[in-house]
Every structure is written in structure tokens, then in C-alpha cells.
Design a protein that fits this description.
Belongs to the CvfB family. The chain is mainly beta. The chain has three helices and 18 strands. The chain has helices spanning 210-226, 239-246, 250-262; strands at residues 6-15, 19-23, 29-33, 46-53, 59-62, 73-82, 85-89, 96-99, 112-120, 125-129, 148-156, 160-165, 169-174, 187-195, 201-204, 230-231, 266-268, 273-275. The chain is elongated and about 75 Å long.
Length: 279
């Protein structure tokens, strides 16, 4: 079976004037046009290709790598808006359509949006949507507290950042857990902070507990090294100055420099912290 909107490993069946036909071993064939046929490819050889629908809505293969695959999420640029909807660049010749009915807000040409790609069951076409929430599912989470996860920010709210967890779950990073500038579409590492009885997931951008102390201590140590061995911050510095400089809360910063001080890696005075060793 050939999976539209995804990568497929297919066998080269025959060569024609327009390209080579690839097969899945089950009788289904798809054309790989000449411009994508690698030099020296032989009959019977297997090749990894991406399959989608061309301008005539026919299945076609390409060796180009798309910016998004079926059931995935990515930040994409709107290239054109017409009577059918918005067309976004997903790295292929034919742009991906985001129909008006699948736009959370009206999309504008030249701007970037977080897009979900899916196969429309009625039209059997690959289309995009900015209605991200409806494509995320927290019914079977299978995550653990403090587990490291991949995040994509898709919306800012009054509470904080709405994020996509591991390309399938919905989570929230509360504003008081954000200590750096983050934009919609950014991809980050995060850590599961809490999974509520209703399966809502709270996420933080730093590890929790003892691991966080080591993580933050190493982070501060690297900042001191990169600053030439001195950082004009200490345990009594203004919280906003700490947040802007090291992207940590004052509490986390104080714990971090406390670890470094106990290990005799830094000294602390009323002016700031100074490196005492190269390691």
C-alpha cells in the first residue's frame, strides 16, 4: 500500500519516457518523474520517496523532502490566498491548500502559521488546517512526570503557551514557567510537569527537582564562562534582570549558583559571580 502524504520505500518496476514507475509489491504503482530519478538507479532497486497528489490530483512520487508530512505539524508560509483558500509552501512543487473552513483565523499571504496536514476523507486530498486543537488527542497520554518531550508552540493565551507535545498531544506551559522569548512556531525541548485527572498536561521548559538544579547550574556555569568568567548577577539581583540575562526565575538562579558555590566553581560577592576554575 502506498501512503499518500508520507514517505514510502518502493521498488523500481520499469522505466518510461516520463520517468520510472515504482511499486509497493501489492500491485499499486506510482510515477517518479524524470527530474527526480537519481542517476544510476536500476530496475528492482528500492528507493525512498514521498508520495502526494500532483496538480491533476494524481498520485505522484518525489525525492524532495517536504516541510510537513501527513498527520504532522509545522510552521509554514502562506504564498497565496484566492477563492479556494490559502496556499502554503511545504517544500514541494504543488502548494498545500488550507481551505477557508479549516482556518482558525483568516490567513494572510506572506505570513507564517502553524499548520496541520491531513488527508480529507471526502475529497481524498491532502489539505492543511490551522484548527490545531481538534487534531490533538490526550485520551491515551502514556507520558511520565519530568519526561523530556518535543514541543511546538502553536498559540499564546492568557495562561501561557499552548504547545503540541510529541506531534500528538496538547499541553500548556504557564507564563510563570517561561523565562525566555518564545514565538508561535518555535520548537523546543520540554518536561512533563503534571498530568491532571482530566488528562490536561502541564509542561515546563526546565527539568524538575534535583535534575533541574544540575541543569540550571550547568546553564549558569556556561553563561559565566561565555561572559569571560564574570556575570554581574547575584542572589540579591532583581528578578527581571535575572530572567532577562539567564532565562531563569530568581529562585532557580539562587539554587543554581548555590550548587556552583558549594562545588567551589564560582565565588559570589555583592557585584556578581566569578569563575574560580576552568571546569
Amino acid at each position: 500500500m502506498i501512503h499518500l502524504g508520507n514517505y514510502n520505500t518502493l521498488e523500481v518496476l520499469r522505466s518510461t519516457s516520463v520517468g520510472v514507475f515504482l511499486g509497493d509489491g501489492e500491485g499499486t504503482e506510482v510515477l517518479l518523474p524524470n527530474k527526480y530519478v537519481p542517476d544510476g538507479i536500476d530496475l528492482g532497486q528500492e528507493i525512498k520517496v514521498f508520495c502526494y497528489l500532483d496538480h491533476m490530483e494524481r498520485p505522484i512520487a518525489t525525492t524532495l523532502e517536504p516541510l510537513i508530512i501527513r498527520d504532522g505539524f509545522a510552521k509554514l508560509k502562506v504564498m497565496e490566498v484566492n477563492d479556494f483558500g490559502a496556499f502554503v509552501d511545504w517544500g514541494l512543487e504543488k502548494q498545500l491548500l488550507v481551505p477557508f473552513r479549516q482556518q482558525q483565523i483568516k490567513l494572510e499571504a506572506g505570513k507564517y502559521y502553524v499548520i496541520h496536514c491531513y488527508l480529507d476523507e471526502k475529497s481524498f486530498r491532502l489539505v492543511g488546517s490551522t484548527k490545531i486543537d481538534k487534531f490533538l488527542n490526550n485520551d491515551q497520554v502514556g507520558l511520565e512526570i519530568n519526561q523530556e518531550v518535543d514541543l511546538m508552540v502553536y498559540k499564546k493565551t492568557d495562561l501561557g503557551l499552548s504547545v503540541i507535545i510529541n506531534q500528538r498531544h496538547q499541553g500548556l506551559v504557564f507564563s510563570n514557567d517561561v523565562f525566555k522569548n518564545v514565538r508561535v512556531g518555535d520548537q523546543l525541548k520540554g518536561y512533563i510537569k503534571n498530568i491532571r485527572p482530566d488528562n490536561k498536561i502541564d509542561v515546563t521548559l526546565q527539568p524538575i527537582g534535583v535534575e533541574a538544579l544540575d541543569f540550571n547550574a550547568n546553564k549558569v556555569l556556561e553563561l559565566v564562562k561565555n561572559a569571560g568568567g564574570y556575570l554581574p548577577l547575584h542572589d540579591k539581583s532583581d528578578p527581571e534582570a535575572i530572567k532577562e540575562s539567564v532565562q531563569l526565575s530568581k529562585k532557580a538562579f539562587k539554587k543554581a549558583i548555590g550548587i556552583l558555590y558549594k562545588k567551589r566553581l564560582i565565588t559570589i560577592d555583592e557585584e556578581g559571580i566569578t569563575l574560580t576554575t576552568e571546569d
